[in-house]
Amino acid sequence: MSRLIVVSNRVNPPGAVGEETVGGLAMALAAALKEYSGLWFGWSGKTVPKFTGAMDIQDIGGVTTAVVDLEEVDLDEYYNGYANKTLWPLFHYRTDLAAYDRVYGEGYSRVNKRFAETLAPLIQPDDLVWVHDYHLIPLARELRALGIKNRIGFFLHVPWPAHQVFTTLPGHALLAQAMFDYDLVGFQTAEYQQAFEEYVLTEARGSQPEPGRLKAFGRTVKVGAFPIGIDAPEFARMLKSAKARRMRDLMTATTVFRHLVVGVDRLDYSKGLEERFMGFERYLADNPDMRREVLMLQIAPVSRESVEAYQEIRGRLDALSGRINGEFADVDWNPFRYVNKNYRRDELAGIYGAARVGLVTPLRDGMNLVAKEFVAAQNPEDPGVLILSRFAGAARQMREALLVNPNSPEEIADALKRAITMELPERIRRWRALFDNVQREDVTAWRDAFVSALAGTNERRTALAS
Which of 181, 224, 301, 413 is 20–30 Å from 284 (CA)? Predict the structure, then answer.
């Protein structure tokens, strides 16, 4: 069997920080590497005065990792700059927040080249290389320039935007062209795949020789949709842990005689938190008889604090949460709890299990594994209801959720009312269908589908006859 080399911006295997603390992507990649021999390469998260390319190689939790430090200027230009101020807002349709600075683009290219030069000596002839996310789109191009002929796949965890949006990016053609140095490009949903295909056919004047294959820039690439899932068996084990049980008991006791509505998101403008807060505010205003019967808990750990847009949204959310409690609280209770704190995944599992409603309403999201974890955490005999944004990738698989337009506080308020009053037979019916999908299309299915497709790609053709 070929080795699998996973490349991502950050390397964060579960065993490094405690198995229940890392996010869904880290758990997914670790699961892939435990199945296939190989290594996980990327940035250590640390900076040094001058880049040396020196690697720290370790075995952590059964996963071999190889990490490299970046310079401070790399952090500013590549990570905080092009990745988080340019590509992230662009791919989430926030062109109003996207910063186009040539220096950012130069830093992005420089770091991808440094990654390639550091990684290339580790690659053996039969290795499969699996590159992850928008930070590293040009990596295959840099590896090809160094003579690497291995099969290289790329998976985009965030949405690929409509071609009218993508073309607002200066140098968009060069970035799209870099995708054709991969043998396989994977997207979360068929919608995102189609958006990429439309760009290639419309803007790059490419062609589609057959479904799932594109030709442009003198090359061909195989494309497909590979929706990511959670590690369902591992999550089931986590639900039985002492911490999960304690947290569920705590939340159940705290919300006795009340319905718990829970949201868990990284603090980010793409998550629709402002609209969600206003939707809950509208629900309280429209249903005065329920004001003491419902408690909303929003967990939103702070991220990317050095980026101005994130500082601004934090201030707006602080004001909104204060306004809601100021208007609807009483001397002995508050209807809304807003917490900027990280919790362990097993603790979150306990919180999900105690909730009557899971409120997952991003304005735009690649997939959203919180929605799937919420479903997996429910009591089969008395399950909660999932309210899900129709603009999350998960909505394509989870149609038995209550799907809403996250831009509409009215739709969110109406969905909350329906979820809280939903009778048990309907809750069970919806949950069973959702749970079946979560189990069937889990991280193992995602991993095996992508790796199998990558292993089955034809030898790379750098040029095609016209």
Answer: 301
